[in-house]
Amino acid sequence: MPTQFDWRVGVLDGEPLFVCQYQMARGHWQIIKHGPNGAEEGRFRTLALADTPAKVIEVALRAARAIGKWLLRRRHQGGGEAIAVIEVNDNPNLEHGVEDQVVKDEVWSRILQWFIKRIDA
After folding, report:
1. What number is the average pLDDT over the span 41-52?
2. Contact 35, 117 (CB under 8 A)
3. Rounded mean pLDDT of 61-70?
4. Taking the model in full, what pTM does it have?
5. Across the strands, what pairs with 77?
6. Core vs surface per residue 98-120: b (16+ CB within 10 A) or e
């Protein structure tokens, strides 16, 4: 499914946490192009939840409900009207300066509060 970028939507406890677009590496069909001289990565763009198309968040939340209420990252592909879930990651990596680029420490605070709530329970 060729596309210019992947949507990455983090969902925590049934609520959207962050949204990023990961662009494909130049001249490649994936976000990382591995070659003899190392890896070349595509760019990323982090969006505010309010600036994200509602359909993207809706699809992410629907996919998350089928899995559970922990931290999940949905990987979508598609432009225009078509959105396809191609991966649900229940152990995602989050990078400082990427997923938190828009809301800063709120991402980390929400994750920490989620753990504290479960430890206290």
Report:
1. 94
2. no
3. 82
4. 0.82
5. 6, 84
6. bbbbbbeeebeebbeebeeeeee
CB-CB neighbours of 3 under 10 Å: 16
- Rounded Cα gap, residues 56 and 52, in angstroms: 7
Q: What is the pLDDT of residue 89?
A: 82
**Per-residue pLDDT tens digits for 81-108:** 678 888 888 888 899 999 999 999 999 9
Per the CB < 8 A criterion, the answer to whether 7 and 19 are in contact is yes
Dihedral Cα 94, 52, 63, 12, nearest 10 deg: 40
DSSP conformational letter for 116: H
Residue with tokens 């432009």: 79
Residue by residue, DSSP assigns 2-61 as --SEEEEEEEETTEEEEEEEEEPPTTSSSSEEEETTEEEE--EEEE-GGGS-HHHHHHHH
